[in-house]
Design goal:
The chain contains one helix and 30 strands. The protein is an all-beta fold.
Length: 435
């Protein structure tokens, strides 16, 4: 594996995000039907030595001008939902579209508001829980302003025709950060995990124990009543995305931890016998950094087989890593470095057949542009060639591309920058060609 050059990270003071970015510039989305295109370009030494053509179908995203924050979520019945934020007069609305064959359906609206917290790293979601149950979350600013914001959660039990009045999964009432939510199926209903800043209201108390961001969880039963709200971890990294996969034994969550010496490696927490176990490291990277890198892990599951991908820059070597478990996350094999060349991380992951895994990440091309890269990793850790999904358009390094599987295909979505304009692009990739 090639030793990677150091690239600029985005460290920030503990407990604070980078300046929030709200994209509202108007642009035009091409009103084209699906256009079949084969993306053969690649990055890294494997691609330079020649790689098989990637069977990729460019898919129009039915998002209005100014839309950002794509999110892909796959349901247990292979249903796939793409959601995003759209400008709406002086505010925003949360839109989503359902995969229907080879195209995305006409968009539908979950909610709208003029006090939403819009940030490139912390974005809403719409998640298919079952054939008729859908769940959604978004973020709203508190009157205190700044980085004080709350999570709002809503459900639809009729396939999106109507949505419940939103509720907050947290009841602490502090003027602090609440976000980086993952929504997932839990028992017969819905569970959430999120980063919760309630302890940060007096984070800098002199001579006291270190206080900071926490990881919390809650479930919602038949109605919208909050149940089982609990703390999973009392000190985590401040603004890295969380993720959850559901195994045969129950849900497992991954997140970036934080220790008192500022080691910020990836932890996993398992829900076992009705409760969440204490988080433990997936691998011992030993990345010590005095601020949040804004680069969360991703996880995928097939039965009790798990795969976790993440970014680290321990020892000044930026790379994307992959670790596997065959026992529901109780133990992990040693991690594998899978990125080539300079990388910005922002990983995506999907389980394939026979234990293979697909991983995406942001990579830096020779011309200094940023691309969405994709690679297949076999069950015995053989690395397939690296493919570029994002074509000729530059992808902002401060964005989080999405990857999900439905049937025999992978689906990806990302934000591109074309001059001063930004828009959402997507593609469908035949899994059989990803070699």
């Amino acid at each position: 594996m090639i030793r990677m050059k150091s690239i600029p990270l985005l460290p920030i003071a503990p407990g604070r995000h980078n300046q929030p970015m709200t994209y509202t510039r108007s642009f035009r989305v091409p009103l084209l039907l699906l256009s079949l295109s084969t993306l053969i370009s690649g990055c890294g030494p494997e691609a330079e030595n020649g790689s098989a053509a990637l069977d990729s179908l460019a898919m129009e995203v039915p998002a209005a001008p100014g839309s950002t924050s794509p999110n892909l979520a796959a349901g247990p019945d292979d249903r796939l939902i793409l959601s995003w934020l759209e400008p709406d007069d002086s505010g925003h609305r949360l839109q989503y579209s359902i995969l229907e064959g080879e195209r995305w359906s006409s968009p539908e609206t979950v909610a709208r508001g003029d006090n939403w917290f819009v940030n490139w790293a912390d974005f809403p979601s719409v998640v298919p829980i079952s054939a008729t149950l859908r769940a959604a979350h978004w973020l709203v600013r508190q009157p205190a302003g700044g980085y004080a914001y709350d999570v709002l959660f809503s459900k639809s039990r009729d396939g999106g025709n109507t949505w419940s009045d939103p509720v907050k999964p947290h009841e602490d009432g502090t003027p602090t950060e609440h976000g980086f939510v993952t929504v997932f199926p839990h028992s017969s209903d819905v569970g959430l995990v999120w980063l919760d800043g309630r302890n940060m209201s007096d984070e800098w108390a002199p001579d006291g124990p270190i206080k900071g961001m926490t990881l919390r969880t809650a479930t919602f039963a038949e109605g919208m009543a909050i149940a089982n709200e609990a703390q999973i971890d009392g000190l985590t990294c401040d603004c890295c995305q969380t993720d959850v996969a559901v195994t045969d034994a129950g849900p497992v969550a991954v997140y970036r931890d934080r220790t008192t010496d500022e080691t910020r490696d990836i932890n996993i927490a398992r829900h076992v016998n009705g409760g969440w176990q204490r988080g433990r490291p997936v691998a011992d990277d030993g990345w010590i950094i005095g601020g949040c890198p804004v680069n969360g892990p991703v996880i995928a599951a097939d039965g009790d087989h798990l795969a976790v991908a993440w970014f680290t820059s321990a020892n000044d070597e930026p790379r994307v890593r992959l670790a596997r478990s065959s026992d529901g996350g109780e133990s992990f094999l040693p991690p594998l470095d899978i990125s080539d060349g300079e990388t910005f991380g922002r990983a995506g992951i999907a389980m394939l057949n026979d234990g293979d895994v697909a991983v995406s990440w942001l990579c830096k091309a020779a011309d200094e542009t940023v691309n969405v890269c994709l690679r297949r990793v076999s069950s015995d850790d053989q690395l397939a060639p690296v493919h570029v999904l994002s074509g000729d358009h530059d992808v902002p390094s401060m964005s989080v591309p999405q990857l999900a599987r439905s049937g025999d295909f992978l689906f990806a979505a990302w934000t591109v920058s074309d001059g001063d304009e930004k828009r959402i692009e997507g593609s469908r990739i035949a899994i059989g060609s990803l070699r």
